[in-house]
Specification:
Layout (H helix, E strand, L loop, with lengths): L1 E2 L9 E5 L3 E6 L10 E6 L5 E13 L5 E9 L2 H20 L11 E5 L3 H12 L2 E6 L8 E7 L9 E12 L7 E9 L3 H14 L9 H6 L8 E5 L8 H5 L1 H8 L5 H13 L10 H18 L3 H8 L6
Helix pairs in contact: 2-3, 6-7
Length: 317
């Protein structure tokens, strides 16, 4: 452990390590100081993982040592990648030793980027150190999350860290029974590192790229707003065929959930190609689409026009 960048490191015993913090023992109590406290972990070939932390708690132990609870404050993109690899190895070791199954490292949100213009806008916000997204679940201010981006020509393959600064519950457009949460996030990386990364990504974007589908056209206005939709990332085994293969179509359908007329219009557009998502349905995805329609019909009913059409030619004997 080390105060600031220039002081000599002192020894500490690592008791527990997670995505968001660590528990350590030290032979001496730490002085109260405004200087950043750095946790230094060993890495391969003599390299290290250096993490700027905040001291949450300090407790004197009966053996004369001191227990420290640290929260990770910020770290570089390189050291973030190393930390996640280290945590993955520790989890694998726990599995091989028949230890209780470790929980998921951190809640991860996949930010769905629909157009190149939206990607440019999002990168501009990231360079400022903050981003607002719409999430399908509640989060607590102060909670750390992982962010990964999907749907852009040049994908941000390195996951970012962010902390929830504020939450705001909102009713989604056209939905009566579902709500989403708008999260204001602050990235847990040095601002200069984020700016350099954003500049590199911006240079990878082709200068003149048109939206790839009519669905992207429908989403273009999002790039001008202050909120981008995101979804929780689950394991492949927990995700349905629509989530895995057709996430944009599923999002499009969910925006109309609970509104009978709008849902039927959106469903027809998915079936007949108005969104650019049809024509490639897998059997599993097609079955899930029909199930969603059946559930919606049973819960919210049918429009008058559709009820009349269903009566035509029906065998009533």
């Amino acid at each position: 452990m080390r105060y600031g960048h220039t002081s000599s490191p002192s020894q500490a015993t690592l008791l527990d390590l997670s995505w968001g913090g660590a528990l350590c023992q030290t032979p001496r109590a730490l002085p109260i100081s405004d200087r950043p406290l750095w946790l230094i972990l060993p890495w391969a070939l003599g390299e290290t993982i250096e993490i700027e932390t905040t001291l949450l708690r300090q407790k004197d132990l009966a053996n004369g040592r001191h227990l420290l609870a640290l929260r990770f404050q910020r770290l570089s993109l390189l050291h973030q990648a190393r930390l996640e690899k280290l945590l993955g190895r520790l989890q694998a070791d726990d599995v091989q030793s028949n230890a209780p199954m470790a929980p998921v490292l951190v809640a991860t949100l996949e930010v769905s980027i629909q157009t190149v213009d939206e990607w440019r806008w999002a990168l501009g916000e990231i360079a400022k150190g903050r981003l607002r997204i719409r999430a399908p679940a509640d989060f607590t201010p102060g909670q750390s999350v992982g962010l990964q981006f999907n749907g852009v020509p040049t994908r941000a393959r390195l996951r970012l860290r962010a902390r929830v600064l504020a939450t705001e519950s909102k009713a989604m457009l056209g939905i009566r029974v579902m709500r989403s949460t708008i999260l204001t996030l602050e990235f847990e990386h040095p601002l200069e590192v984020l700016r350099q990364w954003v500049e590199w990504l911006l240079r990878q974007i082709p200068p003149d790229v048109k939206p790839s589908s009519p669905l992207a056209d429908l989403q273009q206005q999002t790039s001008q707003s202050a909120v981008i939709p995101a979804r929780l990332v689950l394991s492949e085994g927990e995700r349905c065929a629509l989530e895995i293969g057709f996430p944009e179509a599923l999002d499009y359908l969910m925006t109309a959930w609970g509104d009978v007329s709008t849902f039927e219009m959106v469903f027809r557009q998915l079936l007949f190609g108005d969104t650019g998502a049809s024509g490639t349905w897998t059997p599993e995805a097609w079955e899930e689409l029909q199930l969603l329609q059946d559930v919606h019909d049973q819960v919210f009913g049918l429009s008058e026009a559709r009820r009349i059409r269903l009566k035509v030619g029906r065998d009533v004997r």
